Model the fold of this input.
Amino acid sequence: MNFCVKHKSIIITGILFAIVYASISLVNHYNFRTYALDLGLYTHAAYKYAHFKVADSTMIKSFQESMLGGHFDMYLVLLSPLIFLLGTYSLLIIQIIAILFGGLGIYTFFLHLDTSNKKTPLYAAILFYSFFGVFGAISFDYHSVVVASCLIPWFFVSIWRGTKIQSILLLLFILIAQENVSLWLAFICLALVIEHRRNKKHVTFLLFLSGISLLYFSSVITWIIPFFSAHQAYSGFNYSSIGSNMFEAMQTIVREPFRCAEILFTNHTKNPFGDFVKTELHVLLLTSGLPLLLKKPHFILMLLPIYFQKLFHDNYAMWGIGMHYSIEFAPILAIGIFMVLTELRSEKTREILSYVVLIFVIGSTFRTMDSTIFFTDKAKLRFYQKDHYQRIYDVKSIHHNLAKIPSDAIVSAQSPFVPHLALRESIYQFPLIKNAEYIVYSKKEKSYPLTQKEFDEEISKLENLTDWEIFYSGEVIILKKSSKK
Done:
C-alpha cells in the first residue's frame, strides 16, 4: 500500500497506457486484424509446446520444419501453458504486460539514479510508453523481441545496482528470445563499458557479458538453428547488399564503411515502394529525441546493430516505422535521453527540455497513426476513432460460427481467421489445404498471400468441387470435407 501511495503517478500512468494498449491489441484480435503471420503461427506453436510436442511451421510451409529452424525462440516454450487460461489472447496479453513492466523498469532505473528532478523517472517511463515503436508493436500481433526489449531496462537496473547474479540471469533470459537479440545485447554491454569506464570491476564484468552474448549469437546461427532447419542452414541472413553471409557482411562493413553508410539512408533494393521509407524512420527518430544522444554517443553504439539489421535488409518493409521492427529503439532512447537531461545543471532547462521531448515523441507517434510513407493499416492504430472498433462484417456472428468447427478438426483458414483457430493439432494458412477437413475464408478480407485474381480462382475451384460441402455460408464461408464417396 505504501508503494501505491508513494508511486501513484507511475501506477496511474501504467493503468492509462494499459487501457490504450488493450484497446488497440485486444480489439484488433477480436476484430480479425491479427493474422497467421505472426500471431497465428506463434499461438499454434504455443499450443504444441503446451502439449509437449515439437512446434513446426507446416502452417505456412509445404514441407516439415521445426519452428526453431527459423528463429530460436524459447519464450514460446515458457509462455505456452498460458493458452489454457487465456486462449488465443495469451501472447497479446503477455506482450502488453511486458511493455508495462518495461516502463516500470525505466521508472525504477531513474529512481535508483536518485536524480534531483523527482519527475524524471515518470517522464522517462512516459517516453517509453508513448514511443511510436511501442505502438507499432502493440498494433501488430505478437513477437518475442518485444518482450525481450522490455526487459532491457531491468538489465540496466541490475548493472547499476551491481547485482551480478541478477544481471547474468536477466542477460540469459533476454538472450533466449531470438538470435538477433544476442548481438544487440553484446553491443549494449560494450557501450556500458564506456559508461562505467571508471569502475574496473564493472568493465570486466560487462566485457564478460558481451562475450557471452557474442558466443551465444555465433553458436545459435552457426549450429543450433541449422540443426533444426530443413535445409541445415541459417535462413535469417537477408542482406545481399553487404554479403552472402555474416562473415562477408562484417568484412564489407570494415572495408567499405562509406558505402555501408550510404545504404543506411538510400533505397538500395531499387524497389519503388521502398522510396523514402528509411528517410521516414530517420526523421521520426530525430523528432523522438535521438540528437540528445550525441551527448552520450555510446547509447548510439547500442543502436548500431538495430540500424544495421533494419536498414541493410533486402525487404523494404523491415526499414519502416510499422509493426514490431522499431521496438528496440524504445528502451535505449528513453534511458539515454533522460540520462543526458539529468546531467544538465539548470533545473528549469531540464524541465523545459523534458516537456519538449515528450511533446515531440507523442507527436511523432500520432503522426504514424495519421499519415505515413510506409503503408500501415491506420484502423489498427487509431484507437480514438470509431472505425477501429468496427469491421465491414458482423464480427460477433463470425466468432459464433467459427466456434462451431470441432476443436480436433484439421483446418485451412484465410490469414485473419488463423489466430482464432490456432489452438488445435493442425492448421494451415489458406491456400495450403493439405489434409484439411474444413476451409475458412471470406471474400471481404484481403487475399494475402495470394493476389486477388489468384484468390478468386482458388475459391472458384473449391466451390465447384464435389469434395467440399457448405458448412456455413454468410460473410464468412466455411467448407467441410464431403463425407460422400
